[in-house]
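Weekly puzzle thread! Below is a chain. First person to post its structure in token form gets bragging rights.
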Amino acid sequence: MKIRILASRPESGAATAEYAVVLIAATAFAGVLLVLLKSDTVRSLLASLLKKALTVS
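Winning reply:
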């Protein structure tokens, strides 16, 4: 009986594994973004961009 149940749903754990891979990839991407946003170059670039956007000519 158990063999029939297992044979009828061979990919029952695949969705959980896919979610785990997506979560790991999203965490890695967030880590890279955090490192980039903490760098002085990116901070100065964003600050100058905001100053240009908020300046009234």
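Puzzle host: Confirmed. Bonus trivia for everyone else. The mean pLDDT is 84.
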